[in-house]
Amino acid sequence: MRLLRHVSFVDCPGHDILMATMLNGAAVDLIKETQAKEQYQQILNFVKGTVADGAPIIPISAQLKYNIDAVNEYIVKKIPIPVRDFTSSPRLIVIRSFDVNKPGAEVKDLKGGVAGGSILCGVLKLGDEIEVRPGIVSKDQEGRILCKPIFSRIVSLFTESNDLKFAVPGGLIGVGTKIDPTLCRADRLVGQVLGSLEINYFLLRRLLGVKSDDKKQTKVQKLAKNEVLMVNIGSTSTGGRVVSVKADMAKIQLTSPACTELGEKIALSRRIEKHWRLIGWGKIKRGVCLDM
User: In Gene Ontology terms, what is one molecular function of this protein (predicted)?
Assistant: First the structure.
């Protein structure tokens, strides 16, 4: 076999609800041929009339390694390569951050923090000056939230243990910096504009990953004023209170700072039976920055 493409699978909000089903299916996938044909037809019926209607459905067995080559072929031939933007200012969403220094390391040997994530646009190069926002978040004496951006420089770039001179959109990248490692340890930089967001939102017709004979229990209820949701913006996960709702527009007051831009897509989850359940998505129409 020869390498044709790298493909990255990115977690989405709500994936944890379906994780057990996915793992169970991957570990115990030995079934009778008749059952496989029935499930194939069930999937066809399920996606009919949706954006997935007409998409290829490939029966596989991970245990017996059946059709794994067919999956690879479809990924290469059927999934188009996204259009990449190399000319805009570089922007990377941080999904992990690390302190790579070992306990007891000498001061002269200390390395700056490492940020990991996917570049959305632009190109990052060794030596580039970078800015992390919102950066260090604190409160003043009156309780107002203050955000101080972090400025640093790229000292290393790597992916899959390969050192890079520059990095472009697509895949996961590790960015070595001169940032104080204590600010990066234990994912402290993950997902870092405080205030209210105005969004166009769309709700799912029913809850995913919930089995019930009562359709009312699985139907997604409309957003209610003052209810608290979990809002996922990029790699940021934060609480948000619904300030107002009108038709497909909603204003949400975030509980902690988040960096975003107009038009960015977000995910909305609601607390249902002790779990955060994905109920819909939205697109940011307007953001109001407070005390920045």
Answer: GTP binding
